[in-house]
């Protein structure tokens, strides 16, 4: 099967530069301080943020000048095609946890909460490619919902290369398995900074630039969608910003 | 708009998975018609004509065609006709075709890609109005049929809105072509115009002969068990279950070349192939098919029969049975696993070249087609052009093989030209060997450098200037694609500086261009006796890249410092500019070396090279490199008619070996360098150690003559071959080497990351690592190696596919395939010219028995490098000499005359042209004389030769494919230079 047909359509009917459908909702739970649900195609993710609160467990972990960020990534047993027995603690999710922490730390104004802790929990309900991206995007929304001060949004997106020449954005699971190297970027779309960048295989140096650019463009597109959702959420929950209504 | 596709799939473990995939439906998929003003497609995408016209008696209005999947699959030959234009191909159809047959998919893509044909691909599966979901209880096929109808209806409605100028009101119509009756009925019911392909094509007024190309797949009569010739096949589900529970074995079927009622199935399960015999056992399998076999109980196992059997024109069932019985004579020894084919997993039908069998019934439509490849059965076709086609080579495709039919059913595809015409015969052998030989397209040519080509100062800056050094090239006479040149000069410290300079083809062929893709697909230049099919356009191969004498050329140089006893001190690689001082032939170079009075720099240089080469060769042979033999000949070709005048065996001079040694050295040095730099993706060449059973025929043959052949290692083999000499038979050693050659495996290209280091070994050369670097003009592998080496030394950039080991391996597969085919094509060309040579000639020749078979002797005639079969037991005819076959020591006895392998004989060669369609080379025994069998020598009574022909009536079938049996001759290449030069030598000497 080809990643992109002669007519310029991908396997699922998108064009090379098109994202999957993104739907999201903020404040889905009452218990945590902030929460969000995000669908990116068939990838579905829940995020919950607790804190800032006192350091849990050993006090020695506390930092004097900034907040401790605790991330937890897990996949539901039913999230993949075949049921998986151990959802937590394997190498892949430990790595994901680390990369998530890296992305989130890039935007949280950590210096505002010394000696305290923020927990970010992420649960993948359905995995269909781009799990990390969906998690980062959901985490951003949950942090906003929790009212934690951020420098700006952190948004993630994947990109790949079809047939050695056409860059593709927002890779689905099918496209992931069909081959080609995979680039994941978590970026701060307004300032254009990159918080995390990861490759599944090596790209040839000739292609890296255009694939990165496409992934960043994807981040900017996702940012617009998330921003709109946040604004709508605010309108629903209360009229803190009456001027928004006139927009 | 979004919808999702849901389906269930079973995993390898047997779990059921539910897979849900997104499926986006779009608004921006356009209809592709020029009349449409609603869709906002770009003008390039508007493929379909404003005023589609086609001369059709029934549908005499403007219309587009929508095709059903079965039409594409079965009638692709009709679709390839230029008459059909303005066709809409639906995504549903493309997907199904891709799934069912990759070859037809490729051909369909070619048709779509041809702008003149006006084929438009409509992605109906992602169009919001034409996507349909599968309904409860609906089969996939029914759903796809409905999708096709829905799309056709959408087009009908859509186009109605745009009336054409011709008929103001109606607009362009859409006709659905389908051979599925049910689909047709449904379509007409829903208001579409539908037609079968046959009906439609017959109404076309200006498409004569297109009817012959219709596939006859729908030919199914009621089959009663009685008149079925073959047992029925199992259903795919049964096959699947059978394979799973071990009752059936899957493998690829390989028909026997010598016996049409025998074949073997190569499976992964058994080391030895499974034997299948008899009409029912083969059960309609055709060479190359993937089949399911059922093993017979061990008691019924047999051995391959030693007889040579050909499918004659007899359709007499009794005789058939007799023949089958002949096979069934079971020998106790050498029983092999035997089975019968019960089902076909996948067909590997292609198009076949051949001729029509003479048909005594005048005006009959039904004809029998005889393929040129003997492994393929005859094919029944229908044509109204018998008179025209009977004298032509034609191409035919197989459509189906029903149980009731003795032969498969097919249809005529196209004619190649007159039988016996050299052009036609060349075309046939190129097609049969899948050699791409069309002209280079304009797109490809556009990447050639612009003439006049000059060397710019920038070029010089990037290259080492070696124009001052006395470089020369040594090649066969008439060679125009000179890709290597040499130099050698003494250094002050007493060592030599030796350089090998290879044409810098990768400078001109840049990766990713159409030129590069074309060269990659051709993979190699193919040398026929009278023709060369270039891998790269002539401008490069014979001019800009060719290192001609006294012209400045770009080269890739490999320069060593070598001591007097041929030890390499160091090696360096660089791109350079050279100016060859002399382009010599082997003979000229040899003369210069031998002529002691000549002491100019070239002569000194050649002598230096020659002395080093001798040391190198000795060392190589001490290491266990093999010296093998294959009968190679060269035709003296008439310069005007290109007909062969005379044949001579090729000569080996010292200079051949000199060039060869340095090419080997360069290849090995380069292989080491690129492997060091690119351990994963270096393109190398290996020659696997042959499995020991391969050597059985050689050991047996040696033992019968009293020689022990030790095959435990390459060195042991080389030594024992050296020892095996017979004073009374000077050709014995050569023949033994020919046999040894046939035990070898094929050398192959591979990507270094795909294998373990130990497997890199090159058996024939006894080199731990090897590659091809020295002939980039005629081999694509060398171009890749050049690019890798250039990247190593920083002379060039890398690119994605070069560093991808999967891509490299894919490329290697193609190279290996094309190389093999090129080799076979070259041999077939020699065989063809041998035929031409023997026209109107009868000659007595010295020959040797190569193999003894049950009903025949394989005879090798060294003078022509020709191998032929001499039948001892004629299939029909008068009583002849009574031969007794002794299997123990492989001999045939008649009276007191015994034939063993390697025995010298004299045979009479002639070309049997009694059947104009099938010329055959006939061998007859002259000496030793056997009453009622041998023929008198031509020299003795030339006049009687023809008369004795009739008397003997040997009925020897065509020997053409047997002259060289490529599948058997697994030629180890005594690498590069030698095999290459010999090929080149065959070229005409214009």
Automatic annotation (TrEMBL), chain A:
Cited SUPFAM superfamilies: Ribonuclease PH domain 2-like, Ribosomal protein S5 domain 2-like
CDD domains: RNase_PH_RRP41
Top-rank lineage group of the source organism: Eukaryota
Residue ranges occupied by any Exoribonuclease phosphorolytic domain in the UniProt entry: 18-149, 153-217
Pfam families named among the record's database cross-references: RNase_PH (PF01138), RNase_PH_C (PF03725)
MF (Gene Ontology): RNA binding
Function: Non-catalytic component of the RNA exosome complex which has 3'->5' exoribonuclease activity and participates in a multitude of cellular RNA processing and degradation events.
Complexes and interactors: Component of the RNA exosome complex.
Protein's name according to its UniProt entry: Putative exosome complex component RRP41
Species annotation: Bemisia tabaci (Sweetpotato whitefly)
UniProtKB/TrEMBL annotation, chain B:
SUPFAM superfamilies for this protein: Nucleic acid-binding proteins (SSF50249), PIN domain-like (SSF88723)
Pfam family, one: Rrp44_CSD1
Cellular compartments per GO CC: cytoplasmic exosome (RNase complex); nuclear exosome (RNase complex); nucleolus
Required cofactor names: Mg(2+)
Compositionally biased intervals (Basic residues): 980-990
Molecular function terms from GO: 3'-5'-RNA exonuclease activity; endonuclease activity; RNA binding
Entry-linked SMART domains: PINc, RNB
Subcellular location: Cytoplasm; Nucleus, Nucleolus
Main localization, broad class: cytoplasm
GO BP annotations listed: CUT catabolic process; nuclear mRNA surveillance of mRNA 3'-end processing; rRNA catabolic process; rRNA processing
Domain PIN: 63-185
Family: Belongs to the RNR ribonuclease family.
Protein's name according to its UniProt entry: Protein DIS3 homolog
Organism: Bemisia tabaci (Sweetpotato whitefly)
């Amino acid at each position: 099967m080809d990643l992109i047909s002669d007519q310029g359509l991908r396997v699922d009917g998108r064009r090379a530069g098109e994202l999957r459908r993104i739907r999201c909702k903020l404040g889905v739970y009452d218990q945590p301080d902030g929460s969000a649900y995000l669908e990116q195609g068939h990838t579905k993710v829940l995020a919950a943020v607790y804190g800032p609160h006192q350091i849990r467990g050993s006090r020695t972990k506390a930092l004097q000048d900034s907040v401790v960020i605790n991330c937890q990534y897990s996949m539901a047993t039913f999230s993949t095609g075949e049921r998986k027995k151990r959802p937590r603690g394997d190498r892949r999710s430990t790595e994901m946890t680390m990369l998530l922490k890296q992305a989130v730390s890039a935007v949280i104004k950590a210096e505002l909460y010394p000696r305290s802790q923020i927990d970010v929990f992420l649960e993948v309900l359905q995995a269909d490619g781009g799990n990390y991206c969906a998690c980062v995007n959901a985490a951003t929304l949950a942090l906003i919902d929790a009212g934690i001060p951020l420098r700006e949004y952190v948004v993630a997106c994947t990109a790949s290369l079809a047939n050695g020449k056409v860059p593709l954005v927002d890779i689905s699971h099918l496209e992931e398995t069909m081959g080609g190297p995979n680039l994941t970027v978590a970026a701060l779309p307004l300032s254009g900074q990159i918080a995390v960048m990861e490759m599944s295989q090596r790209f040839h140096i000739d292609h890296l630039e255009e694939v990165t650019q496409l992934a960043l463009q994807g981040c900017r597109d996702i940012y617009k969608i998330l921003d709109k959702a946040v604004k709508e959420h605010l309108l629903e929950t209360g009229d803190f910003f009456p001027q928004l209504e006139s927009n | 708009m979004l919808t999702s596709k849901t389906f269930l799939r079973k995993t390898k473990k047997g779990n059921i998975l539910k897979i849900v995939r997104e499926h986006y439906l779009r608004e921006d998929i356009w209809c592709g018609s020029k009349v449409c003003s609603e869709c906002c497609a770009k003008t390039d995408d508007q493929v379909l004509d404003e005023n589609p016209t086609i001369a059709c008696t029934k549908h005499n209005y403007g219309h587009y065609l929508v095709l059903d999947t079965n039409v594409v699959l079965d009638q692709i030959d009709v679709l390839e006709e230029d008459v059909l234009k303005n066709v809409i191909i639906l995504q549903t159809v493309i997907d199904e075709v891709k799934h069912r047959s990759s070859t037809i998919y490729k051909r369909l893509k070619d048709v779509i890609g041809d702008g003149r044909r006006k084929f438009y691909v409509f992605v109906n599966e992602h169009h919001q109005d034409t996507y349909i979901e599968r309904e409860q209880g609906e089969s996939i096929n029914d759903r796809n049929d409905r999708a096709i109808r829905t799309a056709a209806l959408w087009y009908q409605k859509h186009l109605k809105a745009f009336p054409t100028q011709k008929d103001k009101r109606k607009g362009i119509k859409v006709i659905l072509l389908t051979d599925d009756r049910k689909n047709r009925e449904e379509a007409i019911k829903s208001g579409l115009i539908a037609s079968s392909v046959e009906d439609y094509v017959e109404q076309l007024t200006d498409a004569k002969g297109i009817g012959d190309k219709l596939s006859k797949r729908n030919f199914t009569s009621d089959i009663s068990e009685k008149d079925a010739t073959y047992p029925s096949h199992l259903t795919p589900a049964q096959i699947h279950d059978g394979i799973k529970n071990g009752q059936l074995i899957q493998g690829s079927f390989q028909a026997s070349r010598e016996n049409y009622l025998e074949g073997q199935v190569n499976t992964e399960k058994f080391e030895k192939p499974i034997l299948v015999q008899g009409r029912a056992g083969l059960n309609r399998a055709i060479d190359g098919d993937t089949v399911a076999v059922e093993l017979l109980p061990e008691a019924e196992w047999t051995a391959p029969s030693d007889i040579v059997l050909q499918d004659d024109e007899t359709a007499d069932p009794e005789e058939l049975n007799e023949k089958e019985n002949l096979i069934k004579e079971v020998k106790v020894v050498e029983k092999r696993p035997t089975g019968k084919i019960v089902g076909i997993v996948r067909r590997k039908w292609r198009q076949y070249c051949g001729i029509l069998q003479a048909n005594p019934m005048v005006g009959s439509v039904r004809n029998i087609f005889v393929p040129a490849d003997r492994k393929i059965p005859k094919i029944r076709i229908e044509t109204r052009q018998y008179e025209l086609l009977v004298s032509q080579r034609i191409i035919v495709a197989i459509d189906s093989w029903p149980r009731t039919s003795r032969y498969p059913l097919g249809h005529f595809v196209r004619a190649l030209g007159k039988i016996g015409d050299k052009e036609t015969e060349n075309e046939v052998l190129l097609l049969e060997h899948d050699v791409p030989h069309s002209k280079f397209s304009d797109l490809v040519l556009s990447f050639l450098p612009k003439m006049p080509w000059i060397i710019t100062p920038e070029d010089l800056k990037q290259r080492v200037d070696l124009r001052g050094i006395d470089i020369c090239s040594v090649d066969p006479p008439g060679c125009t694609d000179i890709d290597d040149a040499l130099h050698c000069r003494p250094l002050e410290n007493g060592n030599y500086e030796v350089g090998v300079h290879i044409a810098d083809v990768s400078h001109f062929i840049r990766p990713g261009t159409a030129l590069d893709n074309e060269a990659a697909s051709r993979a190699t230049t193919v040398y026929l006796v009278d023709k060369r099919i270039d891998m790269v356009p002539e401008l490069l191969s014979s001019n800009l890249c060719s290192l001609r004498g006294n012209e400045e050329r770009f080269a890739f140089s490999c320069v060593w410092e070598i001591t007097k006893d041929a030890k390499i001190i160091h090696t360096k690689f660089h791109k350079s500019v050279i100016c060859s001082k002399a382009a010599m032939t082997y003979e000229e170079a040899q003369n210069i070396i031998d002529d002691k009075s000549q002491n100019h720099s070239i002569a000194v240089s050649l002598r230096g090279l020659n002395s080093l080469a001798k040391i190198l060769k000795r060392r190589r042979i001490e290491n266990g490199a093999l010296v093998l033999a294959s009968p190679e000949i060269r035709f003296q070709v008439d310069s005007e008619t290109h007909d062969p005048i005379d044949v001579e065996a090729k000569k080996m001079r010292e200079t051949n070996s000199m060039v060869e040694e340095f090419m080997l050295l360069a290849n090995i040095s380069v292989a080491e360098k690129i492997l060091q730099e690119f351990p994963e993706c270096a393109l190398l060449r290996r020659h696997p150690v042959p499995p020991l059973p391969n050597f059985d025929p050689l050991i047996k043959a040696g033992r019968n003559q009293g020689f022990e052949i030790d095959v435990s290692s390459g060195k042991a083999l080389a030594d024992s071959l050296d020892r095996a000499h017979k004073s009374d038979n000077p050709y014995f050693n050569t023949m033994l080497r020919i046999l040894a050659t046939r035990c070898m495996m094929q050398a192959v290209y591979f990507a270094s990351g795909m294998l373990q280091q130990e497997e890199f070994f090159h058996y024939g050369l006894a080199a731990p690592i090897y590659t091809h670097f020295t002939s980039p003009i005629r081999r694509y592998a060398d171009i890749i190696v050049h690019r890798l080496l250039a990247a190593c030394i920083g002379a060039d950039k890398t690119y994605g596919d070069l560093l991808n080991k999967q891509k490299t391996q894919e490329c290697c597969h193609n190279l290996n395939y094309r190389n093999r085919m090129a080799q076979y094509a070259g041999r077939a060309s020699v065989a063809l010219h041998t035929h031409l040579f023997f026209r109107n000639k009868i000659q007595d020749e010295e020959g040797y028995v190569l193999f003894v078979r049950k009903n025949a002797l394989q005879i090798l005639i060294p003078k022509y490098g020709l191998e032929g079969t001499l039948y001892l037991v004629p299939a029909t005819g008068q009583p002849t000499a009574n031969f007794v076959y002794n299997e123990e020591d492989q001999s045939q006895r008649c009276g007191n005359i015994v034939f063993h392998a390697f025995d010298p004989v004299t045979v009479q060669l002639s070309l049997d042209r009694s059947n104009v369609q099938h010329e055959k080379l006939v061998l007859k025994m002259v000496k030793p004389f056997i009453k009622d069998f041998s023929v008198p020598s031509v020299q003795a009574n030339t006049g009687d030769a023809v008369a004795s022909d009739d008397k003997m009536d040997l009925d020897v079938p065509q020997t053409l494919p047997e002259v060289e049996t490529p599948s058997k001759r697994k030629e180890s290449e005594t690498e590069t230079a030698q095999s290459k030069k010999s090929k080149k030598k065959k070229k005409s000497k214009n």
